[in-house]
Amino acid sequence: MEFLMEFEVNIPEGTPGSEVEDRENAEASAAARLVDEGHLVRLWKRPVASGETRIVGLYCAESKTQLDGLLGALPLNKWMHITVTPLEPHPKRPGGRHGDRALAEKGQP
Asked: Which of 30, 39, 54, 67 could pair with 34 in a Cys bridge, judged by C-beta atoms 3.0 to 4.6 Å apart?
């Protein structure tokens, strides 16, 4: 199954900068593992007001339960509000599981 995710990160006021940096580094490592495992397909940064962070991502998981486990293990999870939208393939969608063949041939994921 594919899921469209929106992550809103809210760092608690008074959190030491070193903790923020450690968690952000750990989050980057966790995201790289999810990419390697085929769960994280793509991420985008969504324009929002200054000082806010919103990330949109395309994830794959066998079920919502598996997705919840993957997200629960993220180092920034306790600082995130996550919106999950399950996706279904469009009946006229060209190409394979993660986009159409033409994009892949152009080198675009």
From this structure: 39
CA angle 70, 9, 50 (to 5 degrees): 150
Instruction: Count other C-beta atoms under 10 Å from residue 76's C-beta.
Output: 19
Closest CA relative to residue 11, chosen from 53, 56, 41, 50? 53
Range of the domain at 74: 2-105
Count up the domains in the chain and report the number: 1
CATH assignment at residue 43: 3.30.70.1060
pLDDT for 38-96, tens place per residue? 999 999 988 877 767 789 999 999 999 999 999 999 999 999 999 999 998 888 776 55
Rg (CA), the chain: 16
Report which residue type is found at 71.
Answer: L
How many other CB atoms are there within 10 angstroms of residue 31's CB atom? 18
